[in-house]
Amino acid sequence: MTEVEKKSMSAGKKVTLTIAVVVILIAGYFALNLYKVYFAPNVTENQKYLYIKTGSNFDTLIDGLKKKDIVRSVSSFTTAAEKMNLVANVKPGRYRLKKGMTNRTLINMIKAGNQEPVKLKFQNIRKKENFAAYLASNLEADSLSFINVLDSTALISKYGFNQDNVYAMFIPNTYEMYWNVSPVDFFERMHKEYDKFWNAERKQKAAALNLTPAQVYTLASIVDAEALYDKEMPIIAGLYLNRLNRGTLLQADPTVIFANNDFTVKRVTNKLLQVQSLYNTYKYAGLPPGPIMMPSINAIDAVLNREKNDYIYMCAKEDFSGFHNFAATKEQHEINAKKYREALNKRNIFK
């Protein structure tokens, strides 16, 4: 091989090596860019959830990512989103974020609508507006939207309720619900839960008491408001059922407090008893038009499985233990009531 040939071969190797290096560098650039766009950690730990409201589009999503500082690089997310066709597939919901999540993982989650459900746990909520506020604090819709559904005669009458007793449809428990569930869909889901709860056995027990499920719920709300301890619930339920069956006024203090809309009351006075309301069971016989609170399942079952007793009267114990003294006669009740009044006076509790 001549010297010229050797030099030519050497030059050729250099060119080939240079081309190879350039190709590797270019490939590396694209690989690194591909990694940054799709596979590099990009989600921060600044937010626990990404909320995408109903009706949001891609621009709204990007704006939210910027304002909440959810991703480190908005540009890489945008590039990946455009390539993965997220622009036309933004689905509303509440999405669980994890530190270091990649663009690809987040985009696929949004496209699939794989949101984490909200756990709703409700019990002892007094009024519909309180319930609506609780729902609005945990779900997308505002409280007014929930109130409008709860007050919709057309909707609630379809399920056999009215504006007074619609509260009885909500069985206190823990439920999983998607954040963006509509108020109407929420209502329908709750009615399905109501139907599940009121199985044949519970309906038979209610019928044996000559009560509808809604009436059982209303009585349970009074029992729950009276009882500090669950073990007293069947006794109190038996007492009030005795009064109902005899046509005697229930004279339940919690209904008077509800009627006066003052839940700071510790002592029901004669002035409070004068309120003109169908919820004032000192003035109106029978059950009030609807529940005075959202009772526990234990309270509902306590009514269905009430203790058979002869009690007509009850009074809080004078030791303020939270328990009650029960009586079958007015004479015994007066003795119990006097002890309690004296105990209240000693503690300067006059209202």
TrEMBL record:
<keyword id="KW-1003">Cell membrane</keyword>
<comment type="similarity">
    <text>Belongs to the transglycosylase MltG family.</text>
</comment>
<keyword id="KW-0961">Cell wall biogenesis/degradation</keyword>
<keyword id="KW-1133">Transmembrane helix</keyword>
<protein>
    <recommendedName>
        <fullName>Endolytic murein transglycosylase</fullName>
        <ecNumber>4.2.2.29</ecNumber>
    </recommendedName>
</protein>
<keyword id="KW-0472">Membrane</keyword>
<keyword id="KW-0812">Transmembrane</keyword>
<comment type="function">
    <text>Functions as a peptidoglycan terminase that cleaves nascent peptidoglycan strands endolytically to terminate their elongation.</text>
</comment>
<feature type="site" description="Important for catalytic activity">
    <location>
        <position position="226"/>
    </location>
</feature>
<dbReference type="Pfam" id="PF02618">
    <property type="entry name" value="YceG"/>
</dbReference>
<keyword id="KW-0456">Lyase</keyword>
<feature type="transmembrane region" description="Helical">
    <location>
        <begin position="15"/>
        <end position="35"/>
    </location>
</feature>
<dbReference type="InterPro" id="IPR003770">
    <property type="entry name" value="MLTG-like"/>
</dbReference>
